[in-house]
Automatic annotation (TrEMBL), chain A:
Keywords: Electron transport, FAD, Flavoprotein, Transport. One of its GO terms (molecular function) is electron transfer activity. One of its GO terms (biological process) is fatty acid beta-oxidation using acyl-CoA dehydrogenase. InterPro entries: DHS-like_NAD/FAD-binding_dom, ETF_a/b_N, ETF_a/FixB, ETF_asu_C, Rossmann-like_a/b/a_fold. Binds 1 FAD per dimer. FAD binds at residues 207, 263-270, 284. Belongs to the ETF alpha-subunit/FixB family. Residues 3-184 form the Electron transfer flavoprotein alpha/beta-subunit N-terminal domain. The keyword Transcription does not apply. This is Electron transfer flavoprotein, alpha subunit. It comes from the Bacteria. Its cofactor is FAD.
UniProtKB/TrEMBL annotation, chain B:
This is Electron transfer flavoprotein subunit beta. It holds the Pfam family ETF. Keywords: Electron transport, Transport. It comes from the Bacteria. It comes from Nonlabens marinus S1-08. Residues 23-212 form the Electron transfer flavoprotein alpha/beta-subunit N-terminal domain.
Length: 322, 248
């Protein structure tokens, strides 16, 4: 018996979330007195999976799986789960993992709980805590099936080192035509930009910026911090910024370490999307803006004066701490 | 083309979240319920197919009689008929089993569900319905075109979007982008009057088992007050982010 974790990679290298889900899987394996096995697609090597407690990496090298395909990936992961007799399977909360999670759950007859934020409070009955009501509450949820599937929220558990030797074995799932009913034709991805999903820091701006022509300083601030840029709903609705940057209840959720909101008043739908971020900084001219109630740090001031100075201060800080 | 739109009956986004019965039940007292926003985008796209390509559109919800006003609103927006599966929505798996039964018996070509409901945020029902009915599945769908049984869809991925092709039968997990918010329809008086005459079929549950159950709810610990930094003292902000919050 093992705990199986799906470790996502890009161009052969593991994503940071792969190490976070591995850390979490190791925590569960310790509770159950077992080991962690991982499955990945086209990983170059074991990377740092051993550092985070993974004992064996089952690496899939099938050319048909070069591009992410939810149906085929779910089938392959299900076969790996059966091969290692996994009672618990852990995936992340990325768009891809959420896509394949429900398919995988049906393949394995595994009770699925997504948005999990902590290790199980009990292994028997198996009880996990997940966020609900867009992070306004938590539900302690029991899973009653023999196999259990957990989707871990980003940044909820963090990285925990548990060094072990990780061996890599080839894993060749047996796939059928049904797995490829959906065919990926083209991918349009800005490769040079930090994405909101992967970013540790997100710099977000709203109507207070007065127009799309003023986004240069937002991008400069994001550049200094190595951050992704985001925006409020009215800004994407007005076409100032692309829809993919819209953060909120019907937009993208953000679970970054630091979220900087500039010229955003803090509508409840926006706050729902950023609740999972650890530290929130708000810059706004209106001292009564509701966002200040949700923020950790705040600056009451004009973004057009504050942001350029903040950029210079951060540049100096970076230079001093390089 | 026969379309089924799965509707979740959810608390309005501004609702206060409280619990009763020793924190085991959601407190519906004073809460306004609405069509789940992700489902509303899907319903409007279904209306487009109905008007431009001659599709029929049914809507379905799993739940008790309290969900019927939400189904009536969907009828007022233009759906042809509504189905309520008469059982509480216990967990994603049980709901998906009930919906899969409706899909199989109704012979639907296209099932549109929201990518997640804004109450439990599980995001699992659309994919489960697809797997249970042997349909293709496209999640986080932001564009959908159908010609005959050929489908071209665009879905949002982390950091961009991708275009896929597939064929009917299809289940999508839809969201904003399927239509723009400005295209969402508000029921007019004629629609509301017509909705009263449209069929709302109450279907007996197949008594699908659940795989998970909520033991209790809890709310996050109260947050401390904001630390305000003077606009002319941004060195302090940098210092706080570095030494206190440890995020830079």
């Amino acid at each position: 018996m093992s705990v199986l974790v799906y470790t996502e990679s890009e161009n052969g290298a593991f994503k940071k979330t792969a190490y976070e889900v591995s850390s979490y899987a190791k925590g569960i394996a310790d509770m159950l007195g077992t080991d962690v096995a991982a499955i990945s697609f086209h990983a170059a090597d074991a990377g740092d999976l051993g550092t985070y407690g993974v004992k064996t990496l089952h690496n899939v090298k099938d050319a048909k799986l070069d591009k992410f395909n939810a149906g085929a990936y779910a089938d392959a992961i299900a076969q790996a789960a059966k091969a290692v007799d996994a009672k618990v399977i852990v995936i992340s909360s990325s768009a891809d993992s959420k896509y394949l999670g429900s398919l995988l759950s049906v393949h394995l007859d595994a009770g699925y709980v997504s948005n999990v934020v902590a290790l199980p409070s009990s292994a028997d009955p198996f009880t996990v805590k997940r966020s609900v009501f867009t992070n306004k509450a938590f539900s302690n949820t029991q899973i009653s099936t023999d196999r259990k599937l957990i989707g871990l929220s980003k940044n909820a558990y963090g990285l925990k080192e548990n060094p072990t030797d990780c061996s890599v074995v080839d894993f060749a799932p047996s796939l059928n035509d049904d797995d490829f009913k959906v065919e990926v034709k083209s991918v349009d991805k800005a490769t040079d930009k930090v994405t909101i999903a992967d970013a540790e820091i997100v710099v977000s701006a709203g109507r207070g910026m007065k127009g799309p022509e003023n986004w240069g300083m937002i991008e400069e601030l994001a550049g200094v911090l190595g951050a992704a840029t985001a925006c409020s709903k009215p800004v994407s609705d007005m076409g100032w910024r692309p829809h993919g940057e819209h953060v909120g209840q019907t937009g993208k959720p953000v679970a970054s370490s630091l979220y900087i909101a500039i010229g955003i008043s803090g509508a409840i739908q926006h706050l729902a999307g950023i609740n999972s971020s650890k530290v929130k900084v708000v810059i706004n001219t209106d001292a009564e803006a509701p966002f200040f109630k949700a923020a950790d740090y705040g600056v009451v001031g004009d973004a057009f004066e504050v942001v350029p100075v903040l950029i210079e201060k951060l540049k100096a800080f970076k230079a001093a701490n390089a | 083309m026969k379309i089924l739109v799965c509707i979740s009956h959810v608390p309005d986004t501004t609702s206060k979240i409280n619990f009763t019965d020793n924190d085991t039940q959601f407190d519906t007292n004073g809460v306004q319920f609405v069509i789940n926003p992700n489902d509303e985008f899907g319903l409007t796209r279904a209306m487009w197919f109905k008007e431009k390509q001659g599709a029929s559109v049914d809507v379905v919800t799993v739940g008790g009689a309290e969900v019927e006003p939400t189904l009536r609103k969907a009828l007022a927006i233009g759906a042809d008929q509504a189905i309520r599966v008469d059982t509480p929505a216990v967990d994603g798996y049980a709901v998906a089993k009930e919906l899969a039964d409706v899909v199989k018996n109704g012979g639907y070509d296209l099932v549109i569900a929201g990518r997640e409901s804004i109450d439990y945020n599980g995001g699992m029902v659309p994919g489960m319905v697809a797997a249970m009915t042997g349909s293709s599945f496209v999640n986080t769908c932001i564009a959908l075109e159908i010609e005959g049984s050929s489908v071209t869809a665009t879905r949002e991925i982390d950091g961009g979007k991708e275009t896929v092709t597939t064929s009917l039968p299809l289940v999508i997990g839809g969201q904003k982008g399927l239509v723009e918010e400005s295209d969402l329809r508000i029921p007019n008086m004629r629609g509301i009057m017509m909705a009263r005459k449209k069929p709302l079929d109450v279907k007996a549950s197949i008594d699908a088992s659940s795989e998970t159950s909520t033991v209790s709810f809890e709310k996050p610990a109260p947050k401390g007050a904001v630390t305000l930094v003077e606009a002319d003292n941004l060195d302090r902000l940098v210092d706080l982010l570095h030494n206190e919050a440890k995020v830079i």
